[in-house]
Amino acid sequence: MQTVWKGAVSFGLVNVPVKMFTATKDNDIPMKMLHRKYNEPIRYTRTCPKCEKDVEWSDIVKGYEYEPGHFVTFDKEELEAISSENSREIRILDFVDLEEIDPIYYQKTYYLGPGDTGSRAYQLLIKALETTNKIGIANVTIRSKSSLAAIRVVDGVLSMVTMFYAEEVRPVSQIPNLPENESVDDRELEMAKMLIDQLTSSFEPNKYEDEYKARLKEAIDRKVEGKDVKLAPEEKPTNVIDLMEALKASLSQAQGGAQAPAKKGKKAAASAAKKGSDEEEKKPKPAKRPKKTGA
Predict the structure, then answer these.
(1) Pairing of β 5-11 and β 89-96
(2) Residue 77 lies in a domain
(3) How many CB atoms sit inside 10 A of residue 5's CB?
(4) Selection from 139, 120, 115 nearest residue 8 by Cα
């Protein structure tokens, strides 16, 4: 792992030197923007509309538009000077119980490894958090961006999850068309609770797969081999007409009873698509290669 930040976690007058590592990674399949005519990657340029010339990074400053067309500007050194006081410190303000934090506040997770010195303080903070079952709430500034953060222990390692400040979370009252205290049918509620019980299990992150990524990877492989992309038609959700019937069918499906018609339809569609694809591949036809054009 590559170190993305160095500093210290502080609580009271205790400093714990740490190195920060990104705990998650982006597994999306990368796609480039191409010019349709030539299949060549397009380029982005930084152009000033006034002089109509390309602008080098060294000639770029950041500006705040305080009224339309009028800016106050800051260069990199000015912004670093503003954030320098706390830029190397993760300052724990409070210790709280994990269940007190709504997941809506969480952003991105980092691991905090021990720094070159202070391993005793690092182990002390881990043990203290584990024995009290608490997490630290801290302020942190990384790359001129300040945020709230939760400091906790993950598999014996300190971790930091950046969090939104309360003012950054929109109130639910802004959501349009929310029902206002509509009553629910007792029988439907009981059926919904039974369905939730049937679908309740322990969280096992490895059992969940990125279905879109798998379909995209399969489509890429077929195109590279010069084959047509044939996908089973997507199962389209239908509008719920009878809520009780939908709950009964869902519960029956969850209990392993009669398969819902939609499920059968999906399997049949997938099977038909595969059969059709296999038959299509058996037909003699000239190999189709990916378009390869150039200037």
Answers:
(1) parallel
(2) no
(3) 18
(4) 115
> Rounded distance, CA 151 to CA 137, Å?
6
pTM score: 0.72
Structure tokens at 8: 């210290």
Low-confidence ranges of the chain (pLDDT < 70): 84-87, 231-241, 257-295
Assigned token pair, 226: 């010069």
Question: Is there a domain that residue 154 lies in?
Answer: yes
* Structural domain contains residue 97: yes
Compute the C-alpha angle 168/171/176, nearest 5°: 130
What's the pLDDT at 178? 86
Residues 6+ apart with CB under 8 A from 54: 45, 46, 47
Q: Is residue 253 part of a domain?
A: no
Distance CA 16, CA 136 (A): 13
Q: What is the number of domains present in the chain?
A: 1
Give the number of residues written for the chain: 295
Which structural domain, as residue segments, surrounds residue 144? 3-25+85-168
pLDDT in tens, 172-183: 999 998 888 778
**CB neighbour class for 50 (10 Å; exposed up to 12, middle 13-18, buried from 19):** exposed
Residue among 63, 64, 61, 55 at smallest CA distance from 77? 61
Q: Produce one character per residue of 75-94: b if its CB has 16 or more CB atoms within 10 Å, e if not.
A: eeeeeeeeeeeebebbbbee
